[in-house]
Amino acid sequence: MKLWKIGCVIAALLLISGLQPSLAASDPLPPLSAKDKAQMASEVKQGADVAAQVAKENKFDTDKADVARVDAIGQKLAAIANTTQYTAGFGNDKVFPFTWHFNIIDSKDVNAFSLPGGYVYINSGLLKFVHSDDELAGVLGHEITHSAHHHVQALSHVQSKMSTEMAIAMLAAVLAHVKPEDMANLYQGASYAQMGILNHTYSEAAEKDADHGGVILMTKAGFNAVGMLTFMQRLEEQEKVSPSVELGILRDHPYTADRVIAVTQELKEMKIDVTPQAV
User: Fold this and answer.
1) How far is residue 109's CA from residue 45's CA, in Å, rounded to a whole number?
2) Which helix (H) or strand (E) covers residue 122, if one does?
3) pTM of the entire structure?
4) Sign of the CA dihedral with 29 first, then 168, 197, and 143 last
């Protein structure tokens, strides 16, 4: 995937609280305040601005069956995210009813990423890699949570000197697990050490929250959350046996094994029977 030419970032250490597998209370959500509405509009604009650049620099898969499949599953999950407050371990769980957009980038990489305001992208390589709608729902639920839990805004708050455009460009690069050398190309002078801190610390926090949120969304939307686990397990195995294969979602991300363990434990605590054959 081509990278859009927006500035980079000075990495900051981010902290994450412990995640709980329980769902948030299902009470009706309070109406958005004027401040909330302004923040929502800001996030939508931020995402739309970068989405326009993504569209310029990438070719999209326009196969009608593929597009319909991804959009149908994505919208089903997004409807839950728009109406349910589910616990955030990173960012925050304030619910903004975004209009969600799902696109397929024509790339062989097994990869996906999201932008603020409801913009989600998966690569055609990932679509071919998943074995079921449940596995695809796991990926989409993960990416929806990145946006629904306002991860860009959380990062911008921690690193207040970072411009919003820099934060968005950085987030897309991090969530796409771009190689450190490619991230460095976004801004001459950014050190590999800074990129390493960013990938290590931010990814660990955001990915853990997105995995957790993805399981919650899958369960409430009627998908088998074991699909999240089987997808991760196969990614981990593929990385071991074929290190040269383009696995963008795993690049420079040493936590796949830990994520498998965490999701397995969460499924156990939610009393979901781990039966891979069912997905």
Assistant:
1) 28
2) strand 119-123
3) 0.77
4) positive
